[in-house]
Fold these 3 entries.
Entry 1:
Amino acid sequence: MTQFFKPKIKPGRPSRTSSEAGRKAAPKDPAAAPAAKLPAAAAAAASAEQPKAKKQKVSRQNWSKGGGLKRMTEAVAKWELEAAKPEKGRMSVHLFAKVNGIPYTTFQTHITSVDGKRIKLGSSVGKKPLLDSQSKDIIVDVLVRKDRVNRGVGVTGALDLLEEMHPDLTRKQLDQACRRTVRPAFSGRLTKPVVAQATTAKRTAITVFQQWRWHTHKAGPSLSMFPPCQACYI
């Protein structure tokens, strides 16, 4: 009989009842909550108040030319004087490199006693380029001067000049060296290959004497009325 009058069990999963045992949790402070749990507007305001530190761009120092080469040359000369001192009063290589602001491994390769491992002053590490800095400066100066007198040359003309300077290299090697090293390094002085303007005469290459000849032989009263200037005969 007791089972007959027992309340019926509701279908589905039983509801979870929270226990009231233990200490009640303290109310959370919205100001101390992390930015992920705050609303979107509050999180944006909190992130705007805290400025992000800018990352400093790390630049590599080239010790084979420019100011780096000058510093390395002076440091090597000072070390030769330091190495001549007695061992007790001599500065260590680590401390000497730190005082001169040069990395220890870089400085050590320039002063090592092993000839095969020593790096000569002015020589870069790794594979040597086909065109040295002097050849690059010469070819760039020639191309710029040719362009100034309206006798500019293109890629083919530049390669012809390089072949005369370096007959031991192939044309393909010179072409790759010119495109990969010369043009990017001197982009401020050299122009990109452009199509020449179609014209019947070099109007910008007219000299002073040619200008006077043009004005004197040009038919028309307006030009014959002006006497020649003294600068035209210089």
Entry 2:
Amino acid sequence: AKLTAFQQMVIVKSLRENFLTLVSRNLVAAELGPLFIESPPFDLGACYNDSVNITPLIFVLSSGADPTEYLLQLAVERGYGDRLHFISLGQGQGPKAEALVKLGWDTGDWVCLQNCHLAASWMGKLEQIQESQDPKKISEEYRLWLTSMPSPLFPVPVLQNGIKITNEPPKGLRANLGRTFQDI
């Protein structure tokens, strides 16, 4: 007799636990459909549309995924090609980043602070900046984009108030080809 997907998962759990994730995906696909195991297409435009001037957009980075090209493309599409400012955080970049954010508040430019996980000592200041925002005094067009690897030092209030975006590299040949055609 043929085993159901759940029965297969129970057997794999007891014999080869290292394959449990794969079998779990098979169970979800069998019971709910393949739609529930595939990552949704990356739509940065929709994330932007959901944001307002005081809501940071946070890229949670994973190895092999770089959202910079997508952000540059969105900036060009929205007419911000030369109004998008990047700064890579690290040693001594905190004051420059703060000045850039305040400039963005006044001009409506977009600011992208990259590698927030490398500026642990400045994360408290980022939290202060975010909490001190007055929506009436900040340009409606301003957006703050943050990129960071998962880090326990990232300020929780900034995470809670932000729009979290992940862009994981596609898993498998089919998904990889699908992403490539979507990008074209």
Entry 3:
Amino acid sequence: MSMNEQNDIHSMKIDGTPFSVLMNQAASLKTAQLARDRKKFDSYPKFIQNTLYHGHGSREDEKLVINARNIDIQLKNRFSVAEYLKNEGNKQYDDGNFVLAYSKFELAASVFRYLESTDHEWKSKGIIDMDIKDVHFYDDTTLQGESIKKFLCKCYLNISLTTYKLDDYKQSKLACDEVLRMDPSNSKAYYRRAKARLAPVHAGALEQEEALNDLSVAMKLNSSSCEVRRSYLTLR
């Protein structure tokens, strides 16, 4: 289409309203509709939202995750892939590559907890809550289920640590929330959540009170931690 033809279309009017205005209104309505249809998806932390895309990725580490999610793969082989990715994340973290570390921890966790769409055309149609499944294995009360839960907690704690380093305090806090849903007595999650609450420049009295509560619980759960006690006394 030539530039003149494009200008002619944009200058058209329908019932007195410019065509370009109608197009913008239609796009806004579509965006609003999609937002209504994906409220639950949007409520997930980014590191869980991203697991939907890992199932369709083309990178080598994403291919490992896709294969590990296969229902025919034995649990020990899934753990082998997940542990490998987590260890790669640890290496990147130690080298100061926090973005890469975060990516590896996110991938490692997504072996055992991920989102998937029942609509194979979701990429072109958009993400709709009714098509999204939250696939996870940590509700299992067997020893295997407990092992998966412990592994996920380690990954989410690592995600909390790396996102804190990247100044993404919201995701750091949300990662701790995920840990505490699975393990309400995890003192490290309470401590890191307290730090994430206090870190933003806009943190005020409410955040300080919530952080103090978290530190109080962390101290009761792990009274031997000098770091937790020092933070609690400083804030108090």
